[in-house]
Design a protein that fits this description.
Layout: E1 3-5, E2 9-13, E3 20-25, E4 31-35, H1 36-44, H2 52-60, E5 64-66, H3 71-84, E6 88-91, H4 118-135, E7 139-144, H5 153-170, E8 173-178, H6 187-195, E9 200-201
Helix pairs in contact: 4-5
């Protein structure tokens, strides 16, 4: 393998002392200090066999790359996957349009009350599972919304349990929270929601 410095690695000569070079990856934030002689060998493409294990470690940190890699294209692909991919799913199920208040600023005051039923909840979880499996999702964030979502506690309970199942099945990093006006949030409800994995409120 022919290794070279990454285009995203910054090099500071004679730091921290005259016989060393500091490397810093602007992509991975990795930092390393090399002897000047090894740095020179890397720059000239003449890495000694005895130094190859060290250089492979540097490559693992993103400081060096395979000489055949076209880094800018790879970076664009990574950036697009990060911006538009499914490594993280953030979803906002509207479990009901009903509310126990009539705030003047709310966009939902003209809606007829409707409630997400268990069949819809099951479909919701099934579609999440399909998307997670296809795209290799690692993080799932669910924000239960309304209306006032606590007007449909059954749906929150059903979805939260389904989300916990997805967490266990796919090894996800799961975050669940609830956007509520707080009027219906008493100790019993809070304890129940915590038991099914939805302890955060806003």
């Amino acid at each position: 393998m022919a290794l070279r410095l990454s285009a995203y690695t910054l090099c500071v000569n004679e730091h921290p002392d005259p016989n060393t070079v500091l490397l810093y990856s602007t992509l991975t934030k990795a930092v390393a200090v090399l002897q000047s002689s090894l740095f020179r060998d890397i720059k000239t493409g003449s890495i000694q066999e005895t130094d190859m294990p060290t250089c492979l470690e540097l490559a693992g940190e993103g400081l060096l790359v395979d000489g055949d890699v076209e880094e800018h294209s790879a970076f664009k692909l990574w950036l697009n996957q990060t911006r538009f991919g499914f490594s993280t799913i953030e979803t906002v199920p509207v479990v009901t349009t009903d509310c126990n208040m009539r705030c003047a600023y709310c966009f939902g005051t003209d809606f007829s009350p409707s409630f997400m039923d268990r069949e819809t909840c099951d479909h919701y979880i099934t579609e999440l599972a399909r998307t997670i499996e296809v795209h290799g999702t690692r993080r799932l964030s669910i924000d239960y919304f309304g209306g006032e979502p606590l007007r449909n506690l059954d749906a929150i309970d059903w979805l939260a349990r389904g989300a916990r199942g997805l967490e266990q099945r796919f090894g996800l990093e799961l975050r669940q929270r609830l956007t509520t006006n707080g009027y219906l949030l008493d100790a019993e409800v809070a304890s129940h929601l915590a038991s099914v994995g939805s302890p955060a409120y806003r």
